[in-house]
Amino acid sequence: MNIKVTQLPKSEVELNIVVDVQEFESYHDRGFKRVQEVVEVDGFRKGNAPEDVIVKKYGDMIILEEMANLALRDAYVKAIDEHKLSPITEPKVTITKLAKGNPLEMTITVALMPEVKLPAYKTIAKDAVKDDEKIEVTDKDIEEVIDELRKGRAMQHAHEHEEHDHSDPNHTHDVKPEEYPALDDAFAQSFGDGFKTVDDLKSKVSENLKLEKEQKAREKRRTAIMEKLIEETKVELPEALVEGELNNMLAQMRADITRFGGTWEEYLTHTKKTEDDIKADWRKDAEKRAISQLVLHKIAEAEKLQATDEEIEVELVRLLAQVQDADENRAKAYLYQALTNEKVLKFLEESK
Questions:
Q1: How many Å apart are CA 312 and CA 144, to the nearest integer?
Q2: Which range, of 62-71, 148-157, 277-286, averages the lowest pLDDT?
Q3: Long-range contacts: 231-235, Cβ < 8 Å, 24+?
Q4: What pLDDT does residue 54 have?
Q5: CB distance 89 to 240 below 8 Å
Q6: What's domain 2-113's architecture?
Q7: CB-CB contact of 104 with 97 (8 Å)
Q8: pLDDT greater than 90 at residue 168
Q9: Rounded to an integer, what distance in angstroms lies between the CA atom of residue 109 and that of residue 96?
């Protein structure tokens, strides 16, 4: 078996494979057996028809094609092994020569995991995150939330009152600040057992606001780090990775539109765009997403960061409870990726 590897642009390779006559012939018995098990020949039970009868009815090519499939699988595995290739897509196969008593010749094209040249990611992460951002919750912040809660209560009462009066259901009573309930301990207690006084309510609101602000600051920090890393990483992106991201983005968009009661066709008509137009608009974003996945994967490898089986199990229980009929293996693969990415992002944020 002769395998020639040619590097193509965008991290793809072409494998030219020649299987000589003798080796190709060695696949004959297995190839014939497979054909024999599936073809129907009058007068014979499935799996029992002799070769000459099958060839007479279906021709030589049916067995040759099955032999080629078997040879192809072996050749592909051998090529991957010998040349240490790491494919990320299904191979595209073209059989260029297939005839009885001849060598088998074929061409396989496949996209590989691209080589990623990482920049000095710890330094970039440190420089991208400025520690001058103090997270504070002011009295004004707390007051605004408490006012929202009081307004919500007032509207609830007004609504109940209207229902009771059987007045016009289409008329929504707009409440004025003077109609808000008084800010006293009784108001605080109406939010549950955890609140005895107004101070209890204020401290809970303050705690929630702090968490919210920290979350926003974390997202901002992570976005800043990833933007810089994407900008400075050198990589030749395979088309397949960009396509994959575009298809994920489209699937997400479709799901969102359906969830809100629309259809994808209506959306396309409304925006006067085709699916290809949308893909073209999103291409830059898809490239960024693909690079960021590669960068996270590469850093996880370099820093030996990965989600443990225990961590995946904990999240799996939660995920399967939320998503009915989820495929467990796909869910595990998704969680492994998500939890490992989270570890890398945390590591980058804390780079000193």
A1: 39
A2: 148-157
A3: 232/119, 232/124, 233/116, 233/117, 233/118, 233/119, 233/291, 233/294, 233/295, 234/116, 234/117, 235/114, 235/115, 235/116, 235/117, 235/291, 235/294
A4: 92
A5: yes
A6: 2-Layer Sandwich (3.30)
A7: yes
A8: no
A9: 13
What is the mean pLDDT of the segment spanning 260-271?
A: 91
Q: What angle do helix axes 61-82 and 51-58 make, rounded to 10 degrees?
A: 100
In whole angstroms, what is the distance from residue 87 CA to residue 93 CA?
14
Average pLDDT, the chain: 89
Map tokens 């067995």 to a residue. Answer: 63
Q: Are 76 and 91 in contact (CB under 8 A)?
A: yes
Please tell me the predicted confidence (pLDDT) of residue 63: 94
Query: What does the pLDDT read at residue 72?
Result: 93
Q: Where are the beta strands (DSSP E) in 101-238?
A: 104-111, 116-117, 234-235
Number of helices (H), then strands (E), belonging to the chain: the values are 13, 6
Tokens 């998503």 -> residue:
323
CA torsion through residues 143, 146, 150, 152, sign: positive
pLDDT, average across residues 167-190: 77
The pair of three-digit structure tokens given for residue 224, joined into one six-digit string: 């800043």
Gyration radius of the chain's alpha carbons: 32
| Residue whose tokens read 């001849």 | 102
3-state secondary structure of 331: helix
Q: At a CB cut-off of 8 Å and minimum separation 6, what does 26 contact?
A: none
CA distance from start to end of the chain = 53
| Cβ atoms of 162 and 241 closer than 8 Å | no
pLDDT, position 327: 84
- Is the Cβ–Cβ distance between 257 and 263 less than 8 Å? yes
Residues 85/79, Cβ–Cβ less than 8 Å: yes
Domain boundaries, the chain: 2-113, 131-233
Count of alpha carbons within 13 Å of 65, Cβ hemisphere only? Answer: 8
Q: Largest alpha-carbon pair distance within the chain?
A: 97
* pLDDT the model gives residue 167: 53
